[in-house]
Amino acid sequence: MIRRLLSLVPPGTVAVGAGLALLGLASYVHLAVAGHSLTVADYGSLSVLWTIVFTLGIGLFMPVEQEVARLVAGRHSQGLPPGPVLARGAALAAGLLAAVVALIIAARGPLADRFFAGDGTMVAVLIGSLAALAVAHTTRGVLSGLQLFPWYGTQLGVDGGLRIALVALLGLTGVTNPVWFGAVLIVAPLISVAVTAPPILRAVGGGVPVAWAPLLRGLGLLTASSLLSQVVVNIGVINVKVLDPSDVATAGALLSALVLVRIPLFVFASLQASLLPGLATTATTGDRTAFNSLLRRALGVVTALGLTGAVLAVLLGPWLVQTLFDAPDVLGHGDFAWLAAATLAYLWAMVLGQALLALDRHRAQAAAWAVGVAALVVATLAPVATALRVELGYAIGSVVVAATMAALLRGTRSAGTTPVAAPHREAVTQG
């Protein structure tokens, strides 16, 4: 029976899913141990570091992974070596990293003062963590493109397992410096890359250099959408520090709450692997009935998922964040209701965004996220308590993105646009 079930899923799903599950578990363990080991102020600093790392890291380097995977897969199907794509992808990731690091160094003082209580070492950890993600995502693109899914899953699993082991060691030895908890985000990804280096090293070299155009053609819009989507889902923790730097309790509590209410996003990640190919296939064949049916089913699934998560979060959220993460008692059931509603709307936006990508409407998707971020900024300026301001920003921003995408899709159907398949997918998880 198990063998039959495994035969129904795409190749590599189990290996990648297992690695992803361990990496997701590591996020909860990491923050839980840190929450019980650090002071409220230090946990707030770690929360901001975590948020910046994964907002920029996923937003910038996940599109590089996707484009590298797409081009490597295409060359692999033609019997061409992946080395030239790896060289271009590594150069692109290095360029993006250099640009971000230059900005961080230029703003080192204000960043340390505003977000890390004047601790410049945390800024260095931020740079190191972004560099580790740049290396990890670029190499994962090669592994994915070559369909080496056991190696891909191994990299995810080693990363997650090391995070769990390292933070457990920090907790057992009584470490109370947030720098060490942040450094785990550097060490674990780099070791995971080293462990899975053999197939990457075999891919180095060989073949003539590839042109930049195929790699850059859709990367700009894809990166814009990726960054803006991460801003919507993550910016709340940073906004707390911006709006009220003295409120060290709310930043940490909010990150703990977001980790809980966004569990449905981790589940959606496992569905996403089959959603875009299905939508793209029906779009390519022009089967609008099948396209709309699949889109409705996907929206139904994420709605049920989001509502289930919302009920549990609203009922148990305040107790769970204090028990699991030792978070300050500053968020109530109403706060979790706003965060859960925002997550449901964000799930809708992710599904509708996949539909736009399947129709090759990258520009429309990026525009929808831009409109949502603008709405988030306006909502965050509301004259209410700090926590409610960031919760409203997340909720209203997500709703506006979903509504904009729905309107754009309705306009596509009305105009009779011919669907075209797109080879991209978005990242939906943090950390």
From TrEMBL:
Originating species: Micromonospora lupini str. Lupac 08
GO cellular component: plasma membrane
InterPro entries reported in the protein's UniProt record: Poly_Biosynth_Transport
Superkingdom per UniProt: Bacteria
Annotated protein name in UniProt: Polysaccharide biosynthesis protein
Keyword presence, Oxidoreductase: no
Subcellular location: Cell membrane
Keywords: Cell membrane, Membrane, Transmembrane, Transmembrane helix
Transmembrane segment boundaries: 12-31, 43-64, 85-109, 115-136, 179-201, 248-269, 298-321, 336-359, 366-386, 392-409
Keyword Transmembrane helix: yes
Membrane topology recorded in Swiss-Prot or TrEMBL: Multi-pass membrane protein
